[in-house]
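re: ur msg from earlier - yeah i can do the pyridoxal-5'-phosphate complex, just paste it... oh wait u already did. ok heres what im feeding in:
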Amino acid sequence: MADSLWNPALGAMGAYAVPAAEGLVKLDAMENPYGLPAPVLKAFIERLPALAVNRYPDAGGTALKAALGRAFPVDAAFASVLGNGSDELIAMLMQSVLQPGACVLAPEPGFVMYRRCAELLGLRYVGVPLREDFALDLPAMLAAIDREQPQLVFVASPNNPTGNAFAAAELAELARATPGLFVLDEAYIPYAEGDGADFAAGEDNVVLLRTLSKWGLAGLRLGFVQARKPVCEALEKLRMPYNVNALSQELGRICLEQAGAFAPQIDTLKTERARLAQALAAPGVEVYPSQANFLLVRVPDAVAANARLREAGLLLKCLHGTHPLLRQCLRISVGRPEENEALLAAWPGAL
Ligand SMILES: *Cc1c(COP(=O)(O)O)cnc(C)c1O
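and the outut:
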């Protein structure tokens, strides 16, 4: 096969790497460590016999969308689009603006899929560094937006991998400066103080990108966009007709209708986040403030600490080398109390 066969972006790229987690305490992927609440599981099992998996799923996802609208209320001018995880919606948003010279802009370090998808689709990607303390560098962002005239700006708040949330006033200033769509990625809202629904209602180009993954349903692959109707209509044109399968639609709907059943899990994880943040602090260790279900921690030697923790049976994410601002940084998802205990037991010896 000729080299010229392939999309040129593939040459410089590896497949998205997911490390093996067998036998390890898995604190690397921001999963909710708890399984389905018992009443949710019971309702799902009761529904299973009536689920027509011989038929294609509801192409419009009507029942799931109605449940989403109730669980995540937004302005009446907004509609929603379902995705097979928000990753798929990131790619769809980019496809929707695809044209020669089109540009995607995002602060960095940020969510890696923005760059990855842009490069795969042949969009120009511009990353703008955050400040040393991971705050938005507003003048630099505004200058870059003015210079590049991006079709899409992506900002995750709370941000992955830094954990901090950005102020609504700053987001509004960026959204107003953006000539195209301003995508606010709210993957971590279950763990954050407040959300962007009011901010989105006040600006005409804001797209809310949300997911049930970090809430506790990463395996279902259920993401959704909430945005003004013309944006949703454009996305519907390029959405693969049955992108969200029947089992995910059904279990997603049940989970949303019993959202309260997840509250004790989320509360425990927020309490554990605060406990871990305190307990991980040590001389030479900096724990950054987090409104997500993970902590970003700077240690004296991240690669060595990560290797020692792996020996001790703990899987974290070492970010050293991925971005200059993340030197000596580890990202640690908040686990169940006993998992966090295992981390804390190994921590002093790993530093
Ligand atoms: C995890 C994550 C996502 C991806 O979520 P899926 O719905 O599981 O695809 C999107 N954005 C950010 C910032 C994330 O951290």
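cool cool. The chain is about 40% helix and 15% strand. ping me if u need the other ligands too
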